[in-house]
Design goal:
6-stranded mixed sheet, two-stranded antiparallel ribbon, 12 strands, globular
Length: about 280
Amino acid sequence: MKKLKRSERLVDMTQYLLSEPHTLIPLTTFAERYGAAKSSISEDLAIIKEVFEDDGIGELQTLAGAAGGVKYIPKLRKDHALSFAQELCHKLQQTDRILPGGYLYMSDLLGEPSLMNEAGKIFATAFSDRDIDVVMTVETKGIPLAYATAAQLNLPVVLVRRDHQVTEGSAVSINYVSGSHKSIHTMSLSRRALKERSRVLIVDDFMKAGGTIQGMMDLLAEFNADVAGVGVLLESGAVESEERLLQNYISLARLSDVDSKSKMITVSPGNYFEK
């Protein structure tokens, strides 16, 4: 790489760090990349660290020693996260989202990259201190959210299928009870998709009573895997606590009511903002 001015080096270094979250980068990598002394690189990193923390972008963790380096940890400030949640609630309360049967249309929001990226940053912040190997979701609507979260954590995504595909090879399948419909469904996971004893972060777009997520947790037990955390974009607040199959989770928004007659939708920030 050609010799860069310090201002150019700072921009390139910042971009490099943002593209490699949760990755330990030795100072020698930057020193060789820019043809600069480690002392100069350390000074640059101190500037980037201050800007990241002041603007609520994240943290730069520095590890000393021969095996040391710097690691960027995405961290979205709580006030920024709340602003996102309020915007999400506003979008969800648009009356034209009401579908027959009192359902809520969300597919357009789940397909909006900027929105999912912000949600992914919040989940990455909430679970940044957990030991996680993979992010898991069930096909199909939760996929954009899972990938956005995984990108911020620099982790692979594992997809649970509702129907076993021949191209997946041998798989483990279980039956589970849907919390929404109280009916029995099947989900499966390829044996090659997940290593045994993995630490898994489950992410989903919507949770009512938690039947689908409980199904994923039961499926993980077949792999001797551990649940490192559960994050949902929107939860139903119309479910009594004793009916909910899941208690330990983080939600970004809570749907309290959908009134088809009055065309009123009530959504508020989720339990993440109650802590």
